[in-house]
């Protein structure tokens, strides 16, 4: 993919959090991290610390005079209330955090899923800010074919969970996979696994041929 920007700069959760605070992440990853922060308070203290440190640095900076100050103020005061963007309140959604629902444009019950394999569906948002962006839905107990990645894949779980060779990833967890990770995720039996995935490289199937065929058909 041209202009890929997910790669090695953001290969750990801490680096993602730092990029999020600095506003340095591509738009889909900013949404992913904002959504994770809505779901879980696990990283709030770390983020608060980063924001305090950044604020302290800003206070040490010398002020810079604004260019065209008077004309900028005139434009602000001349604007009417009709110019403001009105946002209709959304119905509360128990699955998608607000940041993700606003980005995707649907709540979880209205996402226009497309079946890719039996028991596995996706909603493609396409290429955004150098990243390929999708939502995915995995049927309870369904195993995704073993694969690796030609780049980075960052996935936020928003409902259910999956387990692979690295462990279990549930609601609010972020899975970070690259060419060094070969995995075969299986959704929990308790319910569908729904996630938001941001990638900058293709997926490549691996493992024995008979296993791949069985997993693709959903009989592995």
Protein model, in words:
This protein has 220 residues and is α+β, with helices and mostly antiparallel strands. The protein has one domain (1-220): Jelly Rolls. 30% of the residues lie in helices and 25% in strands. It is built from 6 helices and 11 strands. It has helices at residues 13-22, 27-39, 44-59, 69-78, 98-104, 209-217, and strands at residues 114-117, 120-128, 131-138, 147-149, 153-159, 161-164, 167-170, 174-177, 186-187, 193-199, 203-205. It has a 6-stranded antiparallel sheet with strand order 1-2-3-10-5-8, covered by helices on one side. A 3-stranded antiparallel sheet has the order 7-6-9, with no helix packed on it. α1 (13-22) packs across α3 (44-59) and α2 (27-39) runs antiparallel to α5 (98-104). The chain is elongated and about 70 Å long. It starts with 12 loop residues before the first helix and ends with a helix. Mean pLDDT is 82; it is low at 1-8 and 81-93.
């Amino acid at each position: 993919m041209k202009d890929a920007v997910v790669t090695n700069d953001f290969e750990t959760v801490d680096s993602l959090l730092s990029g999020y605070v600095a506003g340095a992440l591509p738009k889909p990853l900013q949404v992913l991290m904002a959504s994770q922060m809505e779901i879980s308070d696990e990283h709030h203290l770390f983020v608060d610390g980063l924001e305090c440190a950044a604020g302290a640095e800003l206070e040490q900076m010398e002020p810079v005079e604004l260019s065209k100050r008077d004309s900028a103020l005139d434009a602000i005061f001349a604007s009417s209330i009709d110019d403001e963007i009105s946002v209709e309140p959304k119905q509360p959604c128990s699955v998608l955090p607000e940041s993700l629902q606003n980005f995707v444009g649907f709540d979880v019950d209205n996402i226009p899923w497309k079946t890719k394999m039996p028991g596995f569906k996706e909603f493609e948002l396409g290429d955004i800010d150098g990243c390929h962006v999708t939502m995915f839905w995995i049927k309870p107990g369904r195993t995704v074919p073993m694969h690796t990645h030609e780049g980075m894949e960052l996935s936020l779980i928003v409902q259910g969970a999956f387990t692979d060779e690295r462990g279990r990833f549930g609601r609010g967890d972020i899975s970070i996979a690259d060419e060094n990770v070969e995995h075969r995720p299986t959704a929990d039996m308790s319910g569908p696994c729904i996630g938001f995935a941001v990638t900058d490289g293709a997926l490549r199937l691996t493992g024995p041929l008979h296993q791949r065929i069985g997993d693709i058909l959903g009989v592995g």
